[in-house]
């Protein structure tokens, strides 16, 4: 079937793809980091660009918010030839050691979302990233000396349903932060035989009245993308 949502053609999408949720961030990444970025889709506001990073073809494709949208995009990207899917997004911290702007490299994702559950037909499962991509992300973050944390995240559906109290309940099981796409991407990576991973920038602590100041979050996002692109060259 031709892709319904990611309106690309064979050859439009590179094998290595960054996946921000926000289409505005997708455009910023493409124009800031890629050489000669070209828009290949804007259908439904899911902006997708392909260019080159250090001479290597790389695409940046917005997924929208949440695992249902991200799983649709991921499925269609694989059909268009993508072989490495790397989420670059933000997260809400629950571990007290995380500060706004810090990076989180997901070692696994607790699947609290419905999309992962539907794919699994209710089976228990532990979604984890591709080990080579995970190792590359960790190594690049360490080499650059950026503040980073490695461990579990939780993938949720209902952004406003999570309370500080419920989030802290997960912290005692080792969950560092909450986000909305990683578990489905990790699972699809296994099902479809492609590499999948996630690196995140902390936007706030769950329960904070506001997100981090723009200059703090913006620097965290810049560092996240820099690490992500360097890691893509290793896989």
Automatic annotation (TrEMBL):
This is Uridine phosphorylase. Residues 16-228 form the Nucleoside phosphorylase domain. One of its GO terms (molecular function) is uridine phosphorylase activity. One of its GO terms (cellular component) is cytosol. It is an enzyme of class 2 (transferase). One of its GO terms (biological process) is nucleoside metabolic process. It comes from the Bacteria. It comes from Thermus thermamylovorans. Pfam families: PNP_UDP_1. InterPro entries: Nucleoside_phosphorylase_d, Nucleoside_phosphorylase_sf. It catalyses: uridine + phosphate = alpha-D-ribose 1-phosphate + uracil. Its EC number is 2.4.2.3.
């Amino acid at each position: 079937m031709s892709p319904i949502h990611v309106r690309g053609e064979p050859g439009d999408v590179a094998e290595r793809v960054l996946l921000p949720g926000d289409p505005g961030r997708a455009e910023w990444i493409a124009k800031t980091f890629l050489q000669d970025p070209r828009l290949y889709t804007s259908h439904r506001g899911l902006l997708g660009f392909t260019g080159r990073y250090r001479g290597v073809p790389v695409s940046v494709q917005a997924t929208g918010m949440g695992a249902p949208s991200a799983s649709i995009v991921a499925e269609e990207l694989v059909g268009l030839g993508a072989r490495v899917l790397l989420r670059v997004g933000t997260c809400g911290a629950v571990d007290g050691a995380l500060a706004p702007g810090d990076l989180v490299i997901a070692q696994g994702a607790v699947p609290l979302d419905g999309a992962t559950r539907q794919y699994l037909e209710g089976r228990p499962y532990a979604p984890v990233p591709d080990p080579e991509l995970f190792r590359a992300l960790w190594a690049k973050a360490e080499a650059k000396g950026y503040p980073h944390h490695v461990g579990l995240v939780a993938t949720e559906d209902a952004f406003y349903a999570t309370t500080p109290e419920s989030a802290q309940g997960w912290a005692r099981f080792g969950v560092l932060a909450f986000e909305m796409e990683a578990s489905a991407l990790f699972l699809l990576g296994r099902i479809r035989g492609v590499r999948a991973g996630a690196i995140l920038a902390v936007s706030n602590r769950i329960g904070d009245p506001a997100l981090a100041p723009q200059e703090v979050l913006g620097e965290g996002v810049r560092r996240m993308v820099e690490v992500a692109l360097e890691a893509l060259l290793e896989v």
